[in-house]
Fold:
Amino acid sequence: MSLQTKIFDGKALAQKILTRLAETITTKKLHPQLLIIQAGNNPASTQYVGMKKKRAEEIGVTVIHEILSENTDLEQQVVQTIEQYKHSVHGIMIQLPVVSEVPLEQILTNIPRELDVDGLLLTNSPFHTAVADAVCEILTEHTQDSKSENVLVIGNAPYAGGSIITALRSLGYTNVNGINEFTKNNKSLIAHASIVISCVGKPQVFSEKDLKKGAILIDVGTSVNSEGKIVGDFLVALGSNHLGGFTPVPGGVGPVTVAVLLKHLVNNTITLKES
Structure:
């Protein structure tokens, strides 16, 4: 019997999460507010913030979107903006990427810990990163008894792959490892993993055939190819039955990440209301 590859529909899972959040907001009479700080007029960032705002408003969340100029005073602008809103909002996030002479880590530390709903303060945050928890939501939704499987994260930078490794281990996954371009025997490690989570961000640098038959692929990386299309790190052929399941790009991890960000915000609204 041939393998039937399952497409993990991120839009459907995101909608399920958002529906529950809308019910919680209504039932508990919440008025969540989220501050999104964007540095510069990067069109992709503006578009992504617009999508977050649309999903937020659909469930009763107010989004304040502040666009700052990218210059040497960026950190000062961030500090002033946070100071203006920190007592009236339930979450603050800084839209990435940020181009600045000031290191990103230094800019992010200005977010009050208790309002870091995007989890970018990492170990100092009350939340995992939204993308890390999104990956966990997808695996929980679509895989059974996978916590002892061989999980490999490609790209272990702190805000993506590194945070995913931390979140999976905290969820009880016992065999999670990360690799990067400097890791020896990369191809062999990729070929033997049961679950592969890719966070490279380069257009289709891998093929599904690089994975073992029946493997699960969670493709976090998004980039634009030479034709101007948004694609993932892996090329997966339409109609192929090589994989056990995979997240498409677009329509996979991205929508779930937005939903999880709002889940963090709603949970934080409840916490702050009760404190």
Notes: The helical segments are 10-27, 43-58, 74-85, 104-108, 130-142, 158-171, 186-192, 253-274.
